[in-house]
């Protein structure tokens, strides 16, 4: 079964719905018109551009172009992780720890899924590699930024508790135990909730897309299960690495809590 | 060498503080608020970057992992923190059963919820929590600030007894001249960047 292509003018019909919403919002002074229109324009332009990029990439299939796109995706995600923390580590540490954690977890898991589980030829075939990496990075980014945000914010607010625990001879790991647990929970919750609701409350986007594109639901479901599993694993390991590196950086070589290393963004 | 020895310690506004606190004795520290009393205690517990050298029974602070140092030189802050729900969870196993009567608290206190404790009860329990780690030196930041006159004297007497018996080198931040008179074998006042001996200096 061939998928039905959408003509651009048909998308304009859908855009009319947004326009109608914007007009209604404007007339009833809801204050959402401006951000709604900007976000709509952004999504159209960004997706149209990535469409062009992917077309070119699929045509060439050269490894270094795919690697370059993956690198750009990673760096943008790293910037986003920094922006989403209300308190972050000073200097390059915030970017470095977030990006490093995402790199280690999502690249490892994606490469593993490509080579061992899916096995396209070559393993980095962009039709598989780029969408998979995109989903991994998007979710890992959320997990890592939530975990780091919670870590830094909790340490900031519970300075007295952490220091009192240090005064009683606890190591920095022991003094940070509860906060680390909270941070991990906060980073993992979206993935765990998504897995719990999948198929009952929500039909995940990737599976929906595949079914629309003509895949038999049985195949689409298997891909969706694979993606959910690797997303959760990637997010979990990403958050684990970020919390462990970030926590270490909050203490110095004498295990003193160093809140001067945090800045408010 | 015995006790706690400070050599040219600098932290915050304080410069080049040298001081010896012998084991089993109390050295009191007073001064206006904001003069750096608590910061000096924090430096001694190695919670704050500082200059100079600090020794416990001849061992340099830097020659010991920081958490081991803090397990021997235990600081009790002015407002103690409690992070578990139950009081007893903050104590090593047997410390709950050996609760000293001088604290004026029933043995059941270990099963209480922390939110039920008054600030005075927290303060007394924080002292016992520090002592139950069997430290070699104590850093007390206004340990009786939330206690009434009667209880203050009882706690002082109990603390002095423990300090003498366990030979603890104790640095005690205090405001009340009468209390300093009662507990201190030496008393220093912070004046600008220096410690000035009030009495009992060597």
TrEMBL record, chain A:
It is a multi-pass membrane protein. The keyword Transmembrane applies. The keyword Lyase does not apply. Its main location: membrane. It holds the Pfam family UPF0014. It is found in: Membrane. Keywords: Membrane, Transmembrane, Transmembrane helix. The chain crosses the membrane at residues 6-24, 36-57, 63-82, 94-116, 128-148, 194-213, 225-246. This is ABC transporter permease. It comes from Marinobacter aromaticivorans.
């Amino acid at each position: 079964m061939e998928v039905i292509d959408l003509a651009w003018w048909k998308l304009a019909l859908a855009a009319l719905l947004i326009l109608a919403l914007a007009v209604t919002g404007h007339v009833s002074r809801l204050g959402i018109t401006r951000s709604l229109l900007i976000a709509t324009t952004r999504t159209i332009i960004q997706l149209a551009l990535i469409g062009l990029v992917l077309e070119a990439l699929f045509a060439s299939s050269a490894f270094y172009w795919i690697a370059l796109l993956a690198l750009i995706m990673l760096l943008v995600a790293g910037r986003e992780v920094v922006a989403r923390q209300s308190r972050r580590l000073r200097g390059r540490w915030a970017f470095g720890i977030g990006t490093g954690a995402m790199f280690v977890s999502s690249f490892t898991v994606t490469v593993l899924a490509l080579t061992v589980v899916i096995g396209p030829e070559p393993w980095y075939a962009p039709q598989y590699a780029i969408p998979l990496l995109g989903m991994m990075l998007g979710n890992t980014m959320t997990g890592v930024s939530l975990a780091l945000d919670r870590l830094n914010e909790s340490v900031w607010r519970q300075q007295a508790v952490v220091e009192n625990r240090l005064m009683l001879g606890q190591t920095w790991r022991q003094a940070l135990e509860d906060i680390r647990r909270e941070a991990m929970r906060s980073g993992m919750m979206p993935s765990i909730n998504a897995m719990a609701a999948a198929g009952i409350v929500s039909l995940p986007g990737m599976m929906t897309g595949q079914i629309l594109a003509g895949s038999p639901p049985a195949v689409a479901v298997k891909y969706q299960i694979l993606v959910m599993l690797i997303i959760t694993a990637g997010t979990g390991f990403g958050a684990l690495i970020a919390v462990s590196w970030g926590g270490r950086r909050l203490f110095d070589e004498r295990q003193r809590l160093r809140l001067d290393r945090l800045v408010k963004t | 060498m015995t006790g706690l020895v400070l050599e040219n310690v600098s932290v915050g506004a304080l410069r080049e503080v040298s001081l010896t606190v012998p084991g089993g004795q109390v050295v009191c520290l007073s001064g206006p608020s904001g003069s750096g009393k608590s910061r000096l205690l924090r430096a001694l517990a190695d919670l704050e970057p500082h200059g100079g050298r600090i020794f416990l029974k001849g061992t340099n602070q830097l020659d010991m992992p920081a958490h081991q140092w803090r397990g021997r030189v235990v600081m009790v802050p002015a407002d103690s923190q409690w992070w578990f729900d139950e009081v007893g969870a903050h104590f090593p196993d047997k410390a709950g059963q050996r609760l000293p009567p001088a604290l004026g608290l029933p043995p059941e206190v270990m099963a209480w919820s922390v939110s039920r404790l008054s600030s005075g009860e927290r303060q007394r329990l924080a002292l016992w929590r520090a002592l139950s780690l069997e430290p070699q030196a104590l850093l007390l930041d206004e340990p009786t600030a939330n206690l009434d006159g009667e209880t203050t004297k009882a706690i002082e007497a109990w603390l002095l007894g423990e300090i003498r018996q366990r030979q603890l080198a104790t640095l005690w931040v205090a405001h009340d001249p009468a209390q300093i008179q009662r507990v201190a074998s030496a008393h220093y006042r912070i004046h600008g960047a220096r410690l000035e001996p009030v009495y009992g200096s060597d």
